[in-house]
Amino acid sequence: MRGDRIWMATGNRHKYREAQEVMAEMGIALAHMEINRVEIQADDLADIAEYSLKQVRDDGRRIVVEDAGIFIDCYGGFPGPYSAYVLNTINLQGILKLMDSIRGRDASFQSVVAYRDGDCIRHFRGVVKGRIADCIRGTGGFGYDPIFIPDEGDGRTFGEMNAEEKNALSHRARAFRSLGEWLTDSE
Ligand code: IMP
């Protein structure tokens, strides 16, 4: 395994902490590069992540940028790539209102990690299936965590889990694990 660290360019410390723990479990050091990234609107998270990645100057360091979103089945995957905009405008209460009297509450979180090492750019995806809770539950995590119940869990929202519990199931942990496995296999 190459000794030098990988840098995660993000303005979101929660994301960094989650990713850093997953990579540490695989023996890979992930450092934090603070950026306010320019985010385009696009239908595919991979296009958004790769655009942001290309905004980071290539100075020889290995870089990752991650983009994530929540996809609600009964709304055709909305808000998906627009998750940040929707959360900022109508917040969690607004999402719950959209779900009023809706019985099919299936949703998924998706994450794409875009990785660059010189000319090599790769994408790694992670998905976790679950459903939208009836109300806000828990104070852990960030963003949509208090209204998302993963199918493989015990009925708690991500917001009611500690970091380790969320990382055992989350979209982000899955995407970073797949990056870690690829790095391990290719070295
Ligand atoms: P972005 O990847 O920073 O563009 O995230 C899009 C939106 O999804 C933001 O509002 C984030 O707060 C939210 N989000 C991203 N990842 C997570 C997560 O792991 N849990 C809860 N919300 C998330």
Topology overview:
Blueprint: E1 6-10, H1 13-25, E2 30-34, H2 45-55, E3 62-72, E4 78-79, H3 83-98, E5 106-117, E6 120-132, E7 148-150, H4 163-169, H5 171-185
Parallel strand pairs: 1-2, 1-3
Antiparallel strand pairs: 3-4, 3-5, 5-6, 6-7
Helix pairs in contact: 1-5, 4-5
This protein binds inosinic acid (IMP).
Describe this structure in words.
By secondary structure, the protein is of the alpha/beta class. The chain has a single domain, classed as Alpha-Beta Complex (Maf protein). The chain is built from 5 helices and 7 strands; from the N terminus they run E-H-E-H-E-E-H-E-E-E-H-H. The protein has helices at 13-25, 45-55, 83-98, 163-169, 171-185; strands at residues 6-10, 30-34, 62-72, 78-79, 106-117, 120-132, 148-150. Strands 1, 2, 3, 4, 5, 6 and 7 form a 7-stranded mixed sheet that branches. The structure holds inosinic acid.
